[in-house]
């Protein structure tokens, strides 16, 4: 079938993107679903820093590539062997397909799926196939999803069925921003109720983590960012204190606010400096979690003696250490009961044609979560 989608052909194009247009809306051939695959009509797709990191070259990926990994839509058709989904089902995509049989999957850690990592790195679906093409030449998939498109063929192992009453723009958020941010708090850190918490980097993922801390009655909840409008948004969402990361006394102020440091500090900015700050504001015996994705060549160093003598814990968090089939329905239930108001992360609803200007806003820190709605 013929579809329209946003393709990136060359990373590192300078901004403003509204003028340079690194993403082009073009026509592609989309193959029907193969064995174990599903054809989805895309209804909403969120813009994430992980997409921006591919555009600006910080996350090298094979080109050309149709971007977009935070997606919700409706099942149109299923391939051979898919027996638990049918046409009309509403689904959310997970950006790590889980094979279910590798060692991490068997251990209950599908975010670390080995075939999933291999296929995401190669720009294919979990099957190793590419279902996108243009003029007979294959086009790469982004994280097994490629959701900046009218339709997407994806692995069944990338999809979670959701309540059809959930609006698509809100449903899409659960595929990345929510599962990553909330999962970092609930799963990776296993943060107890009434703990102290700090979040550095207040994009969609960071603010989702803040919402999770608020749900768990954390106190204090300290929000840290360079952008004053994002600090104001954090206060609206439950932060008890905010500190600008540019303040030379930032770490000292956080330690003062938290009585010597927070129990859990979350780095969501994808910056080594932010991770260093997160470690400095974590109290003795506390946990520092990083879910930001810096350039792969960036390195982090720490004091070995403080790690040992202060019994510190540093943990990485990918996909929020989640089991999507288990956690996405749970997080949606928390949202529906008012405990996790993730709809407040939505900043703009846009058209696919406006995608480059939208990435300008994301790069400038002017938006939390923009969502493309495809009617």
Which features characterize this protein?
seven-stranded mixed β-sheet, Quinone Oxidoreductase, Chain A, domain 1, alpha/beta, 2 domains, six-stranded parallel β-sheet, Rossmann fold, 375 residues, single chain, globular, 18 strands, 13 helices
CATH overall fold name of the largest domain = Quinone Oxidoreductase, Chain A, domain 1
The CATH architecture of the largest domain would be Alpha-Beta Complex
Beta content: 25-35%
> Count the helices. How many?
13
In CATH terms, the superfamily of the largest domain is Medium-chain alcohol dehydrogenases, catalytic domain
Count of β-strands: 18
Count of discrete domains: 2
| Ends distance | 17 Å
Helix proportion: 25-40%
Query: Poorly predicted ranges (pLDDT <50, ≥5 residues)?
Result: none
CATH class of the largest domain: Alpha Beta
Biggest pleated sheet: 7 strands, mixed
Chain-averaged pLDDT:
97
The chain-level structural class is alpha/beta
Provide structural commentary.
By secondary structure, this protein is α/β, with parallel strands linked by helices. The chain folds into two domains: 2-175 and 341-373, Quinone Oxidoreductase, Chain A, domain 1, CATH 3.90.180.10; 180-318, 3-Layer(aba) Sandwich (Rossmann fold), CATH 3.40.50.720. The protein contains 13 helices and 18 strands. It has helices spanning 17-20, 49-55, 103-106, 114-122, 168-173, 177-188, 204-215, 228-236, 250-257, 272-280, 304-309, 324-336, 355-363; strands spanning 2-8, 23-30, 37-46, 65-66, 70-78, 90-93, 132-134, 137-141, 151-155, 159-161, 197-200, 221-225, 241-244, 262-267, 282-290, 313-316, 346-350, 369-373. A hairpin with a 2-residue loop joins strand 7 and strand 8 (137-141). The protein is globular and about 60 Å long.
């Amino acid at each position: 079938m013929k579809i329209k989608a946003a393709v990136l052909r060359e990373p590192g194009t300078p901004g403003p993107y509204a003028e340079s247009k690194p993403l082009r809306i073009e026509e592609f051939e989309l193959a029907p679903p193969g064995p174990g695959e599903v054809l989805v009509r895309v209804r909403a797709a969120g813009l994430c820093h992980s997409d921006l990191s591919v555009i600006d070259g910080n996350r090298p990926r094979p080109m050309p590539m149709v971007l977009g990994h935070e997606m919700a839509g409706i099942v149109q058709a299923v391939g051979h062997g898919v027996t638990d989904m049918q046409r009309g089902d509403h689904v959310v995509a997970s950006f790590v397909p889980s094979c279910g049989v590798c060692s991490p999957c068997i251990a209950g850690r599908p975010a670390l799926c080995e075939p999933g990592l291999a296929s995401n790195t190669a720009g294919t679906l979990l099957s190793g196939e590419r279902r996108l093409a243009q003029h007979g030449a294959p086009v790469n998939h982004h994280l097994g999803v490629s959701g900046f498109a009218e339709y997407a063929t994806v692995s069944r192992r990338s999809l979670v069925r959701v309540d059809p009453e959930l609006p698509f723009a809100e449903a899409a958020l659960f595929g990345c921003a929510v599962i990553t941010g909330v999962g970092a708090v609930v799963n990776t850190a296993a943060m107890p109720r009434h703990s102290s918490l700090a979040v550095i980097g207040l994009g969609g993922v960071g603010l989702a983590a803040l919402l999770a801390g608020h749900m768990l009655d954390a106190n204090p909840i300290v929000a840290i960012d360079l952008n004053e409008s994002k600090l104001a948004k954090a206060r609206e969402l439950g932060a008890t204190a905010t500190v600008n990361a540019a303040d030379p006394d930032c770490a000292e102020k956080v330690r003062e606010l938290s009585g010597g440091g927070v129990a859990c500090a979350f780095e969501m900015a994808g910056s080594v400096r932010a991770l260093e700050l997160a470690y400095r504001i974590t109290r003795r015996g506390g946990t520092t979690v990083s879910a930001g994705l810096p350039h792969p060549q960036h390195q982090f160093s720490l004091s070995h003696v403080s790690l040992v003598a202060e019994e510190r814990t540093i943990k990485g968090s990918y996909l929020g250490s989640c089991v999507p089939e288990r956690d996405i329905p749970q997080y949606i239930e928390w949202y529906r009961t008012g405990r996790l108001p993730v709809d407040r992360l939505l900043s703009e609803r846009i058209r696919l044609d406006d995608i480059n200007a939208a990435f300008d806003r994301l790069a400038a820190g002017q938006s939390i979560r923009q969502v493309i709605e495809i009617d």
